[in-house]
Protein: Metallo-beta-lactamase domain-containing protein
Organism: Galdieria partita
Amino acid sequence: MLVGTLGKSIGCSYISKSFILASRRCEPDFGRVREMETHSSKLPLKHSELPSVSRNISVLSSFDVDCFPKNEELPLPLKSQGTFRNPWNSWRDKRLWDILRWLTTTKDESNVPKSSYELDQLLPVHRVNRALLEKPLKEGKFRLTWLGHSSVLAQFDGFNILTDPVFSERCSPFQFMGPKRIRPVPCNLEDLPPLDVILISHNHYDHLDKNTLKELLRSEKHRHAILVVPLGLKSLLNRLHLDTRTCQQIYELNWWEHVDLDGKLRVFMTPAQHWSRRTICDTNRALWGSFAVIGSSVKFYFAGDTGYCSVFRTIGRYLGPFDCAAIPIGAYHPRWFMSPQHVDPEQAVKIHNDIGSNFSIGIHWGTFILTNEYFLEPPQLLRNVLASNKLHLGSFQTLRHGESTHGPYSEVQIH
């Protein structure tokens, strides 16, 4: 059990750093770094045909007093000696003893069937239909397609937005070890429509897959796509030897900063309670976060990877309510170890309520086995939580891999 769990942990970078220098003094270093202009309302501009040659893109960051009052300080990451820290009391760093306790004493109850036939029955994968993804949507309508784990294709207001694309067989530094897919990707990258925005929430291997990004950013089909990432990730992406022509397509943001795309789409980097690490030596050298994406008629929220904290009420107050959202529901057991960094279904519903989401889908489950809960438990618990809170079961759904949905009262679309 120890060897298997160690392999899993090394591959996904999920174990917290072993030692914390408690004597470090954390300073609120990353306040209003750039001049910021923000809006919580949907953009007044209607979508028209995008320019075929160039795009008008700007990074903005000064507080609009109508949206973010001066008398309320927004939570910002703490930074000390080159590393970021969460500003909330709900965050807890883990010590080496905690890691060893998890690896040696917690039973793995994921119980994934070894039979591919049984897996196909319990967790079927539907091949994505390219024609469906290319169908235009009316104003005020959206389409969310779950591609597995935290990869979601969000389509609205004429834009195609892809979150945390991971299409590799393993989420690991190596493709011969580390967490392996229990379900295949439901499409090839060439099946995706031309992308406008790619969002990366943080640098863990199950969220930032260099092979997938290389293929996407080198594709002529996605030549107009921009990549929006947290602070510290642009240099990492450059070190991963991505195509050099993509350098101007990468936009690096602090929490509450945003990118305006063609005056028709606004992408906010918003907080999350998490951490980052790509190698042994770079713990928390890059920031992490979530995203609020605001179009002319639809608002979409992508929670990334997070534990629960009070910031979601702040996001909902200033940038919500949201028409649709993608919120993690899996990789949460054991709670004593995972709760600061991963929400469980009950906390996912709290986020859904805090941000004022009209409709949410559950992500971060059923693709890679990263923790110890039964692999089908997240959607089961989600339904129980919705029922116990007397919430409509259609307001927060889980999809099968490759399925698309238009919202709480629409039929899930496959063909």
